[in-house]
Amino acid sequence: MDERRLKYLIQEKKYVTLKKELEEMNEVDVAEILEDLDIHTALLIFRMLSKDLAVDVFAHFSVEQQRDIIGLVTDKELKHIVEELFFDDMVDIIEEMPANVVKKILLHAKEEERNLINEFLRYPIDSAGSIMTIEYVDLKKAMTVKEALEHIKKTGLNKETVYTCYVTDKNRKLEGIVSLRKLVISDEEKTIEDIMDRDVIYVHTHDDQETVASIFKRYGFLALPVVDKEDRLTGIITVDDIMDVIDQETTEDFQRMAAMSPTEEKYLDASIFSLAKHRIIWLLVLMISATLTGGIIMKYEKVLETVVVLTAFIPMLMDTGGNSGSQSSTLIIRGIALGEVELKDAGKVIWKEFRIAIIVGLALAVVNFFRIYFFDGVGVLISFTVTFTLFVTVVISKVVGCILPMIAKKLNIDPAIMAGPLITTIVDALSLVVYFSIASWLLNI
Amino acid sequence: MDERRLKYLIQEKKYVTLKKELEEMNEVDVAEILEDLDIHTALLIFRMLSKDLAVDVFAHFSVEQQRDIIGLVTDKELKHIVEELFFDDMVDIIEEMPANVVKKILLHAKEEERNLINEFLRYPIDSAGSIMTIEYVDLKKAMTVKEALEHIKKTGLNKETVYTCYVTDKNRKLEGIVSLRKLVISDEEKTIEDIMDRDVIYVHTHDDQETVASIFKRYGFLALPVVDKEDRLTGIITVDDIMDVIDQETTEDFQRMAAMSPTEEKYLDASIFSLAKHRIIWLLVLMISATLTGGIIMKYEKVLETVVVLTAFIPMLMDTGGNSGSQSSTLIIRGIALGEVELKDAGKVIWKEFRIAIIVGLALAVVNFFRIYFFDGVGVLISFTVTFTLFVTVVISKVVGCILPMIAKKLNIDPAIMAGPLITTIVDALSLVVYFSIASWLLNI
Hints:
Chain A is built from 24 helices and six strands. By secondary structure, the first copy, chain A, is mostly helical.
């Protein structure tokens, strides 16, 4: 439904048609449509939706919209939303809401659920526990396939995923898994014990969500069980939530690599002060580090006074060094993040980068010499100085660029910090020293 | 199983135990274990595996291992592998294999399958068609739930996913979908038409895989149907394949943002010439663009000759400009990639970045003035020149950094190209002009 049709239906009060058309749509799209309306019209339409759709739509609203809607609905409506929401969605919502709204929500939760919510809120941010849900199908070994299917039929309506069922013993210890596919294609009389898969891959509640994401990617699972310290099943994580985790972790890497402190805030929603805060620290650190390069230049003041033209090539040398260092560090950082490059490959990586640097450095050097000697008409000694420095800079920057992320990994620091900006600053200083040393030697200053 | 136990079991020829332990493991792990052995031992163990596991393990081998194994197995073994492989895995393998191996594989495929493979190989790289599979459950409207479940039981064994079933008419046109969950919980006597969902979200064979990935993320689907130009169902895409697509697209963005031409080759597998090739072009372009900055410096040669100390601040100004521009462009590029920032937000974004730049620029300026005037003992006029240039540079770089990715998007170029390296080169030139203009005016040169 496009915006014009929506407005038309609202204006003409064709609510029956409107409801019918909305009911046929995906909840994500309905949520987006309501998000663009003023809150009172949105509430009006929200109330028209069937109860099931309304809850699904609510789960996809933005934090602001959820807050506004909770503020306006009746207690009875809120009770229904709270009862029907998936548990992990509810925990997410509670984490984002202001205290008075949380209080209002918790009023409508059963006591047992309130305790669970409190338990969930205690899991560390970005841990498996913080993204899992408690809705899953729990089977027993002794059940037959027929009984299991009936059990699913009875209870499976509200489960976020029924496609993997978990077999637990009386102490809630995880004994195996059975896919719904296996249940459907198996003989009705077989027991769960006969058909279950015992080699279960699982994570612990305190494992990092990045670990969880890499397990999903490695095995292509739809869901993964989460156990507590005593190996009791406490929840499951579904693949759709992992897609968000992957995006979030990648965004953090992008932010770190561009010299920002990472934040989960969406760009358009974040305040300018919050955005500025995340940017200033690294810029300050790098600005002050650049004092070093200034110091080097002042040390060679005499060289520059004698041959001012040398100054003209400083930006080109520094930029090329920064760029070629960034190339190497980016590939290694990404390789580490995807598990393609490991610390044991360090020797191989450095040797590889060294040889690539020779090739790339030579190619750039040839073009550069040709350009400044023949086109710009710079003297042969100066052309040679610039060209040789360029070559050395490329080699240094590529080697530094691949080593630093691996050192970070070794020290358990996020390798993404060792990206362009930091490497540029380091390579700047090194290449200036090379530049002036060669210049003062060759030009006899 | 760890390496030591594996070696022990092989050495002691305890093959029964070895087979038993491998059969209990996940195919991904078995493939990794065999990958580390020499090819003959690997083949020996590969042949021990049950047929079903062997095929699954084969699909997870690296391209080299697959090639080597195909070269060594008997025709009968290869026939079984070819018959049992998932269709999309087979197409992937064929795409990677040398011609003689492909010929050997196709010998064992049925004619019908050969035609299909050829059709699949014609889909553009990175299109929905190139990543879809043909294995899915196809139902008819008139079937009852009971009949549908029996149909799945009969044919569903080899399907990559049976969790979403597709309802088609006699011309293979897609009419609706039914989840296996719905089938299991519904009354056996109901017809598919009663319970199917008609509002199906689908993609076309020629849609880009990035579009497909964003649909998966938006709706949290497990599978998505793919239709041809005549809206006939031709295949489905499953969420596990989309995780690879997301990683691949992100890696491309990382590569572009670090001034490399994107490649899908894994870092450790790629040759140094291939890696060098992807890096040289952009480095050359950026190096030659830096001529501009050199030209600007030479134009103001007189200023620099008179006040050599000005040179000392060039690296700091350029780096800070580059870094603050990168911050803005990275956030906008990522925002566009995730669909959080759209072209219609351009005005809002520029205004936001402008205000952030003022805050960040002021903070840096204060620290910088304090540092160079009080600590380095630079004269007040020069300190002011440097500080004012720093402030202007931050503002320019942030505004340029947010505008360029949006212009790229508007022109249908990948916004990732407008990242750090390019923006640094542009901002370098602009900040030098500001620097020297202010210097010559303030210092009366």
